[in-house]
């Protein structure tokens, strides 16, 4: 990693005797990025140090640790962002994946042992998003159901554009399974694609348009205006600074914050914000998302962890 030479603080941490795991991008992963992006971060020691620290955790984590559930996430060495680990594939063909600030990478070579931990060679540089909100939904294994629902009547296509910024509080697959257990008929109606208007209305409730809210922003506000309705932000007074969202007495926890994309941010939540009445046929249809929103200047490409 030639980039290490531009971050002496990270190099010192890497050479320390502390237990650690390094997720090292291949040279090809770095060459995939726009040259101007690499050139910019090389001139900013703080930015490149934070970028590289995102690829390091101060714990030795192997594929077996992830496979058997000992570690599914761990805070990176930047002390701000967590890495999220999964094992994909079957018993004979397993692949370790890691997600950092919205970029998911696969290990092309895993479990390289070192005296102070593990090295995993990965196929992407973490922390430099390359997908839109829509494409991130499509590729994320924890958001499969939300993605499938977003395809109804083309609702998710607006999340592909770069002319707006988005904040999407996306229910995890576990959240949808909880809904299925508690409201099996409602879940069946939503997923059978027969009521796209109602599905879109529920997804609208989880979406903010023309405003990108990272967790640091949520910590400073008490309420969020969604496309459909409002969420209250509840700040829990305990170590870790966990944030809850509340809508009509129902609360959801942000289980995976700050999944950065090129046109917004996703926060994965553990509950679907809806009630049975959402599937009634009364009420006038909500207008398409593309109507009524102010346009903004498209944001230029930036490294998510700079700020």
Automatic annotation (TrEMBL):
The portions of this protein that span the membrane are 283-306
State the UniProt keywords alphabetically. Membrane, Transmembrane, Transmembrane helix
**Occurrences of domain FAS1 (ranges):** 1-126, 130-273
Name of this protein: Fasciclin-1
Asked whether the UniProt record includes Transmembrane among its keywords, one would answer: yes
Return the Pfam families for the record.
Answer: Fasciclin (PF02469)
Do the record's keywords include Transmembrane helix?
yes
What is the organism of origin for this protein? Stegodyphus mimosarum
């Amino acid at each position: 990693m030639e980039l290490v030479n531009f971050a002496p603080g990270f190099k010192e941490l890497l050479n320390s005797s502390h237990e650690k795991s390094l997720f090292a991008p291949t040279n090809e992963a770095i060459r995939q990025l726009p040259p101007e992006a690499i050139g910019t971060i090389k001139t900013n020691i703080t930015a490149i140090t934070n970028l590289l620290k995102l690829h390091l955790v101060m714990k030795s984590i192997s594929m077996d640790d992830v496979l058997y559930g000992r570690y599914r996430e761990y805070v990176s060495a930047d002390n701000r962002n967590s890495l999220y680990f999964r094992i994909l594939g079957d018993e004979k063909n397993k692949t370790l994946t890691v997600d950092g600030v919205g970029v998911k990478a696969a290990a092309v070579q895993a479990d390289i042992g070192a005296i102070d931990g593990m090295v995993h060679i990965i196929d992407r540089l973490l922390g430099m998003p390359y997908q839109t909100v829509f494409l991130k939904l499509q590729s994320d294994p924890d958001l499969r159901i939300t993605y499938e629902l977003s395809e109804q009547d083309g609702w998710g296509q607006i999340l592909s554009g770069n002319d707006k910024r988005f904040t999407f509080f996306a229910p995890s697959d576990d959240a949808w399974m909880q809904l299925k257990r508690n409201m099996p008929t409602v879940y069946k109606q939503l997923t059978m694609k027969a009521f796209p208007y109602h599905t879109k209305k529920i997804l609208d409730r989880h979406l903010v348009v023309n405003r990108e809210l990272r967790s640091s922003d949520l910590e400073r506000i008490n309420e969020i205006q969604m496309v459909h309705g409002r969420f209250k932000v509840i700040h829990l007074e305990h170590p870790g600074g966990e944030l809850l969202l509340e809508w009509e007495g129902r609360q959801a926890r942000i289980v995976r914050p700050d999944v950065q994309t090129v046109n917004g941010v996703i926060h994965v939540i553990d509950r679907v914000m809806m009630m049975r009445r959402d599937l009634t046929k009364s009420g006038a249809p909500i207008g398409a998302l593309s109507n009524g929103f102010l346009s903004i200047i498209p944001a230029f490409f930036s490294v998510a962890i700079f700020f």
